[in-house]
Design goal:
Strand order of the largest sheet: 2-3-1-4-5
Structural class: alpha+beta
Largest sheet: 5 strands, antiparallel
Distance between the termini: 29 Å
Order of helices and strands: EHHHEEHEE
Shape: elongated
Strand content: 25-35%
Number of strands: 5
Length: 159
Amino acid sequence: MSGLTHIDASGTASMVDVSDKAMTERVGIAEGSVRMEPQTLALIKAGDAKKGDVLGVARIAGIMAAKKTHDLIPLCHPLLLTKVTVDLTIDEALPGIRVRAMAKVSGQTGVEMEALTAVSVACLTVYDMVKAADRGMRIEDIRLVEKTGGKSGHFKAGD
């Protein structure tokens, strides 16, 4: 268990002490998608979803989720995020919505979980807003795409 930072010597889960870590600029980028029927995508594209602006609401939900990650994921540190972006793109070939989030902080711990949480909640919000039209939608491929900063350095996922 020595490779797991959130497990102490006795096997107990604990929040990592980051007080000795250097303050660095850290960025996390994550992505995911919501696959749906073409007619559901057409509803979103036309702005005809009964609940309103699907992409706008999902964007705000993702940003809010990034800011609340420490409330949702038990061992995450509360962070003073300096920037969060959530981009939702219509993809006719999928068909569905592609979601990409970026979280940024100057701090002692990374923001990967904030970016992943933003994507997850944005995808869930898309699902919630059009589930009446398509209960068979699938949230897929949520993953960390890239992270920079900190002792572990730069990570970029392969295709």
